[in-house]
Amino acid sequence: MNAPGHANETIINPDALKPKLRLKFPIAIAVLFWLSWIINGRVEKAYFTSFMTELATSGVFILLFLGWWWFNRGLRLKEKFIGFVLIVGGAFVAGKIRHVSLNPFLLITPGIPIIATVILAIFFRERENRRTLIGLPFVAGVVLVWASFSLIRMDGADSALKNALHWRWTPSAEERFLAENRSHTAKKPAAALDAAPGELDWTAFRGANRDGIIHGSSIATNWTGNVPTLVWKRAVGPAWSSMITIGERLFTQEQRGATEAVVCYDANDGQEIWAHEDEIRFEEALSGIGPRATPTFEKGRLYTYGGKGILNCLDAATGKMIWKKDVRADSGFPVAMWGFSSSPLVIDGRVIIYAGGPKGILAYRTDNGDLAWTAPGGEMGYSSGQGVMIDGASQCLMLIDTGLIAFNPTDGKKLWEAGSASKGPPRCTQPRLIAPGQLLVGGLDGAGMSLIQVSKKADAWNVTPLWTSKDLKPEFPDYVVYKDHAYGFDASIFACIRLSDGKREWKDGRYGMGQVVLLADQGLLLVSSEKGELILLPADPTANKELGRIQAIEGKTWNSPVVRGDRIFHRNAQEMACYRAAATPAKVAQK
Question: I want to staple 164 with a disulfide (CB 3.0 to 4.6 A). Which of 155, 192, 209, 505 is the partner?
Fold first, then answer.
């Protein structure tokens, strides 16, 4: 007999009354997110588009996951609050103890999606155990994921946004360079240096005319049977600056720990001759460390522009400082996201650079460094000034986010402007004067190429669009013009278009977002891949016909190569090399 008051009583577990934790929706969005992440990394697209796509997909996933977290009925409010605090608190602690190179942005994407995926895996495993959803496995999973971010170092990302991750305790390429450089502090004696450049000298970013065209040099045209030979190779400090060559000297910029250096090397053996250093460091986690601009040589002087806005005028023979300016102070504008990148343009007694803002285009007197004029420069620009002569008028062209603007180099008066305000990738390429008054411009009206005609009637300048094409879309890789065609990068695939109408002839060669220069005397294209390869192609509008390739340097390579005579100079953020690509005597005789 049952005791009174206890007949047929059943003990009810309070946890059994909780609504079931439904995981189909969050698991579905997690699967879709990681599929989109993989596809985004493999589908051919512009660098800026990849970045924005990754940002957007991560943002949508995080919003959906957090929405599910707070509004699902399978967790008590206390559990939601404790779990959220652990996630956010872990991100805060990870941000404090992370390596300095690790972009805090990575704690959001892919950090939060990784955390969310781990949490969903734990919930799926513990879904029948209603008491331990926010228990030891949850805490351990969150802590381990966030702790892993404290163990890694980031050495930038490539154009596909693939991060270069290493254990934080392993030395970086810069640290190895600094250790090696300290043990070889002796400098070579400085040889004589002519104030006037010779025919083979490469005096500025992408050459004297900034068009990537090399004259007077000749190299072997069959790299299968006549492979370029290594003359020397050495470690260098990180930078995306290219090089210039004057006589037997090589000039570039690099980061050396806490100092930004302008360095002169012997082009014959790669030994350092002199270095000018400024106590300043630019570092950006996504694109990397160091200055971006390339030195400019003019009348025995070297003009250099650092990642944080230091403009130097140096004696090219000795490295002695003649004058120095802080452009950031003169412009009143903060450092650009990816650093100040404008290579100095020396024209009509002025050195012109870009900083951004109401006084964003600045011109300094070459003789004493006094500020000659300023002009509005929009908000962002990574192109360099381009000097041209149109209808007898010397002009400085600047391609920035508001469009293409032409100035009088002497007084800064605006002559004309073209194009629309940029709503996409930052503009980085150089405009090209390909015929009297005809300018070929990348990104003038969105992604693609445009050809415009500029002319003067009376006192008025007129700009007439001729065509716009999406068949070649250079971003930060540049392009070259040979005869009736332009050759360059359509995102990361090499392509050729007609100058007559902008239509594509071919698209072939997955070289990443590299660079290209033209040996005009031989009709040859020298392409630098993003992986540090050098590829030789004929400038042939019918097809991409590789004549050979070599792995010239190791690591991500965004710097432009230089050719002088039969020597090829190339560098990236960790090493620099010289190769000799001489034609055999028999082939020389045949010519």
Answer: 155
